[in-house]
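for the writeup, i need someone to sanity check this before i put it in the appendix. the sequnce is what the collaborator sent (i think, or maybe the updated version? ugh). structure was predicted straight from it, no edits. if anything looks off just tell me and ill rerun, i have time this weekend
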Amino acid sequence: MGGIVALIPARAGSKSIPNKNTMMIAGKPLIHWVIESALKSTIIERVYVATDGKKIRNSVLKISNPKLKVIDRSPETATDTASTELIMIEFANKVDFKHLILLQPTSPLTSTSDIDNALNHYIETKSDSLLSLVRQKRFIWNVQNNHIKPMNYDHFNRPTRQNFSGFYVENGAIYISSRDALLLSGNRISGKLEYIEMDEKTYFELDEIDDIPIIESFLRRREINPIKNIKIFISDVDGVLTDSGMYYSEKGDELKKFNTRDGVAFKMLKKKGILTSIMTSEKTRLVKNRAKKLHIDILCQGVKDKLARLKDISIKYNIKPSEIAFIGDDINDTEVLEFVGLSACPADAIEQNLNIANFICSKKGGEGCVREFADYIIRAKN
């Protein structure tokens, strides 16, 4: 079929929650959740984010992926009253594609699996368009002329939840259309229409402040299963196990300040059967002694290419990238954070890393961030 692209419209002028597309939700900017899900799809050829906001543009551009492109949207498509169809049609008149999947930043619970399932069904059924629905098992009543009447069940024979098929509602997460159908109808769905059913929790969209804790709870729970598979925990040193400060004795000897709680974290992880490792670009006796005291399984000092060393460890110990947890703070950690299954940063890490990490610690480097990350993993394994 070919020519399948994703469009993610992101307007700067949100009224209900100012700057909501870039606000931090479960450890990363809201818009990053759906972008990352789209980028992982093997069916989508390119992901476009259409925005009128500089802050949104800058946030999205921190995701390094050749499939991702940020484009401008006209002021007419970004007003409070503008329909989503306006930006879709504007996009269709500018970009060459055959099929378009519309994804929404306010639906961060949309997974890669949801996207691929929708696209595969759309392709297999040779549809003109498709939308995502969720099933809800609620009893609906209608009021007419001050009289109420059940719409989807017999109240004299009230069904149990198990025997009630419920009804479908749009969750606003996924819409797919051919370019021809979109331009002919002027609507996101038209012609031969199909649907996919998504998990009931994807009904929640981030439109109001009260939606935030609900969605964050679901997102954090979604991350737990990968955490349970972690087999090795790797930590950077300066800026993570230390505060990045350079301390010297009167004799000129270099000193480092480590946090006792971080030391305990390694012992806790080892008790859970997780290998422990320290990886640093420097080579000092201080770190060697610290690693020996903590009984670290794998000490890697003087590492100039952390990603290459990590891949060597992965092969030697037969550990998949998805089974690796890594915490780092600076530019030489970025590639590793993108590669591993579970990544983390201290609160004072560089902004680039804060935008790609799965978990952002509330504590700074040298102040117990490693313990915080370890506790997060251990809780998931219990």
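Residues 226-381 form a domain with the Rossmann fold fold (CATH 3.40.50.1000). The chain has 13 helices and 19 strands.
thx in advance!!
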